[in-house]
């Protein structure tokens, strides 16, 4: 009856548990490395130096981080409405398609300053449209969004292969890629931006999208916690019966949340297509959409947490590649395994340690105020 | 397995009886984190007595009984059963110590017969037929010995609630219970069924069964118990012999201050008709009419109470009138505007028409547990211009508004930033009431306004509902608490199986008459039972 659970301070949930999860993942990874005669501490040092040790390493890390921020925010917005959007991968893919189609159509006729907003709108619109179909099926037809969004990833992949091989391929080319965009359709790299101010930076794929990612974090925060639409999304996510009582139509909220979610995932296309590859091609999403689920879970669906979790995964991607390069015994597959362990412990098993840690905290905190020598 | 047996005399803190107490709890402590649900609780229950435990919600009654029944383990303290120390770590331990529990919500398998339900989990072997035969023989003996009459072959789901409860009691006796714990047993019963239950408890007592009755209803304590213990804030506040105490003293002990049990209100000044319901019908997905061709009206300045046993369509009626559920047939007029199956309302439009709705289950529908109080305090009105700029919400306005409501309605603690779930039931209810009442509604729909609310807050909530009536609102009140219906309403309608089976002016109503109507057995009933 009065069984209100003991109060656990926020930092335990927000900081301690994720740190313990990461530590566990690293301990298991270290054990695997140890079995193939690689010193785990050296490997950790290689990862850290590889991710943050020099300027283009930082560039790569932040470039990966940018993608994770977009997909992490996408998962988070849906999650606030109580929806599990597994379709970030497909929405990012189709968002990139929108960016590419738009730029291919107008890069010879419009200036960069017009192409940029058009591209952002197209990325959002295509990503949102790809999310809107599963959203409609969930809201009005009751098909479970987890299943439909997963399926839409496959449909997106098939559609892209068809388009790239049959429609958008550059005439005379062997590889399924479009022609390269004109310079007006290319987002400047950050090393170019720094160059404008006379600052010399080693080239890396990091481009202006990172600024848009930062803006999106603020916009998502304001949308979720400072507008009535965010209020409605959170109400539906927390208590759908109360939402109905309050005159909120959960079906509309599902549509809204999923469209915003899909739009955010679509911005991966800005980073990859407009920012890095400057052409349409296959498989540029490279699993960012799926990693976004772990990022969002780990970041507790809050933009600040998502930025921190994205940095961690950016570091793992970049530092992991460095590790595979430096240590002959560490293969590319092993790096993927390490990334997988971090996703496993901080995503899928995010709440495994919650109970034990909270109990341990209460025992330590409670032990101070409890009379000694009491045995049950 | 716990034959009373005299232990070392110094072990027993005897309360003047020769036999050791059936149950003795010594200095039981139980904390959930920093919340101390039980603080040094001592309890001694005489064998063969009915012992009441009374206290407000959150006083620690259920925690204490959960410890006794093995759901929780106490942090410290001793349990003695029949004078012997007992270790109870699971309900299995409790059963083998001779303790049986009848839960507030029954644990029966609806599509099994009574005898199958009774033997469930206590079958005597792998072959079912011999178990059934043995169980049937034992069941018949129990029914005869304790005069508990239930058809062994009826399906549990087909039995009325009162009979289902008997099956629960038989289940406990079948497992050899000599001590029976009943947790809020009368919440779902009509007054007649309650009386029957009390007669059963009385005959069990005569057979030597010890009964612990947990309740928050003073009337039941006075009617049936021999002894009563009062809990407040996790502590055992007082033990009394029931014959030596009275309702007023117990209420004061429960709350910790004097409480007015009756309500003073002036005669109603009924004005024009605000709500006119005409042939309203709602059929659920399974095709069952939950609200069946109902007609009535509510005028400004009067409180119309809807009495009935829980689950007879009252909840659905409120949801229809507040626009949460679509109407199947018929309809209603609200200040002259008509609504029906073809012209449906949504709850947002309803609020625009100045209809306020205090939902029956505040945590399921009236509030969002994870929200700050100020966010819960605008639920349903969150689109209001006062709270919104062009894009962003006006956080200062929302906070100020919540702070005002908290002061006006004495919500404690008055902190708009505190999470909704961290308020007590009574304070959550005051917050809902504040939100709904503070906009001068023309029609106020109230469901179970004091369910799970402390006695102190009940008084406050009742006074506010009457104040709304006196200010000219039409009030429709749904409650399963007859006392509440009778003390608040000006007119009382009784619902049974989705229909209104009778109307009584409040001053002519008494418990017996309403009880008969609630069971659809009143002599002047208008329609035959379905």
Helical segment count of chain B: 17
Mean pLDDT of chain B: 86
Most extensive interface between two protein chains, with residue counts = A-B, 31 and 51 residues
Strand order of the largest sheet of chain B: 6-7-8-3-9-10
Relative strand content of chain A: under 5%
Q: What is the helix fraction of residues of chain A, given as a range?
A: over 70%
The 3D shape of chain A can be described as globular
Termini gap of chain A = 21 Å
Principal-axis shape of chain B equals globular
What is the gyration radius of chain B calculated from CA atoms?
Answer: 25 Å
- Give me the number of helical elements of chain A: 16
Strand proportion of chain B: 15-25%
Instruction: Give the beta-strand count of chain B.
Output: 20
**Chain oligomer state:** heterodimer
Global structural class of chain A: mainly alpha
